[in-house]
């Protein structure tokens, strides 16, 4: 067979194969495009599911009224912090934990004057203001009603007392929203007078519990903080109290609580020097001594020893 005839025969035989190869290549290209579209759709679905998951986690952990952490998140965080403190104690490391239970009084008058919807807005605004007064490592959440819980990692009794003073002062001096014809404007708090006539009409009572002094697990700490809150409430509010501690009477005079240098209260200048109070809080029984009171007692004792 001559060469031209052989080339023609080979071309005739390879034409179907070339056509099949082209068809297969087109199908492969369409399959690749379809797979890319399917992958992009799956990635979009996964991203949407992640956004929904994050939203569910946020709504499951945040209080819808105030925007701060809710009771469920507080429970989880408290258990985690107690476990961290236990591990640190097992490693001979000091990792204190303080718990503040804060109750705001005076919202009945706000509800009676403005209604529940606007009173809810006031509570949300105040909760956001309280969240600014603590560290980013601390946790503020709504415990129920007008009660809030504050978790203070790496904080002892003295540091917790300072935070409690600051929160009590913040609630008393918070600027309430004033719904008038000109719009919602902040209503400034008035001058410091009697508790009933003070500024916005709101006061806070705070109970303090410290790990491990007041309890070794969450239930004991919450119970101790609740007892301290009850004492602050009985004292007239607008103050803080520490959990009662059973002590053995000593033969000599009770030592003056030591105060570390450089620590100061964030309360206003000229606060009344009563135990656990920034104002004229009635009652004299207190298990924790405020910073200003401790300094005054220490100065008095030093002057007496010098004499």
Question: Would you mind describing this structure in some detail?
Answer:
The protein is built from 7 helices and 7 strands. The chain has 307 residues and is an alpha+beta fold. Strands 2-3-1-6-7 form a 5-stranded mixed β-sheet, sandwiched between helices. A two-stranded antiparallel ribbon has the order 4-5. Helix 3 packs across helix 4. The chain is elongated. The termini are far apart.
Mean pLDDT: 76
Annotation field: number of helices = 7
Number of strands: 7
Strand order, biggest sheet? 2-3-1-6-7
Beta-strand proportion: 5-15%
Helix-strand category: alpha+beta
Shape: elongated
End-to-end CA span: 135 Å
Based on CA atoms alone, the radius of gyration comes out at: 33 Å
Order of helices and strands: HHEHHEEHEEEHEH
Question: Percent range for helical residues?
Answer: 40-55%
Major beta sheet, specifics? 5 strands, mixed
Low confidence ranges = 180-198, 248-307
Can you summarize this structure?
The protein has 307 residues and is α+β, with helices and mostly antiparallel strands.
Topology summary:
Blueprint: H1 3-61, H2 71-90, E1 97-105, H3 107-114, H4 116-132, E2 139-144, E3 147-153, H5 157-173, E4 176-180, E5 183-187, E6 203-211, H6 218-234, E7 239-242, H7 291-306
Parallel strand pairs: 6-7
Antiparallel strand pairs: 1-3, 1-6, 2-3, 4-5
Characteristic key phrases:
307 residues; alpha+beta; two-stranded antiparallel ribbon; 7 strands; 50% helix; elongated
């Amino acid at each position: 067979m001559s060469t031209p005839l052989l080339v023609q025969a080979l071309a005739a035989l390879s034409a179907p194969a070339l056509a099949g190869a082209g068809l297969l290549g087109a199908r492969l290209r369409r399959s690749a495009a379809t797979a890319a579209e399917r992958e992009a759709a799956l990635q979009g679905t996964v991203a949407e599911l992640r956004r929904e998951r994050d939203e569910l986690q946020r709504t499951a952990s945040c209080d819808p009224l105030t925007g701060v952490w809710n009771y469920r998140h507080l429970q989880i965080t408290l258990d985690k912090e107690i476990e961290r403190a236990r591990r640190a104690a097992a490693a001979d490391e000091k990792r204190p934990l303080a718990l503040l239970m804060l109750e705001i009084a005076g919202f009945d008058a706000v509800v009676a004057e403005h209604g529940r919807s606007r009173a809810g807005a006031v509570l949300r605004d105040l909760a956001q203001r309280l969240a600014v007064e603590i560290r980013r490592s601390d946790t503020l959440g709504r415990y129920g009603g007008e009660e809030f819980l504050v978790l203070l990692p790496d904080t002892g009794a003295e540091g917790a007392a300072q935070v409690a003073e600051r929160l009590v002062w913040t609630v008393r001096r918070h600027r309430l929203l004033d719904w008038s014809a000109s719009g919602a404007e902040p209503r400034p708090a008035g001058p410091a007078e009697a508790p009933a006539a003070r500024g916005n009409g709101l006061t806070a009572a705070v109970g303090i519990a410290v790990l491990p002094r007041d309890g070794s697990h969450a239930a004991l700490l919450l119970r101790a903080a609740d007892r301290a809150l009850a004492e602050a409430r009985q004292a007239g509010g607008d103050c803080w109290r520490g959990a009662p501690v059973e002590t053995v009477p000593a033969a000599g005079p009770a030592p003056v609580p030591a105060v570390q240098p450089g620590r100061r209260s964030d309360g206003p200048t000229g606060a009344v020097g009563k135990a656990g109070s920034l104002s004229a809080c009635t009652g004299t029984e207190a298990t924790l001594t405020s910073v200003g009171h401790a300094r005054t007692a220490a100065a008095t004792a030093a002057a007496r020893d010098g004499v």
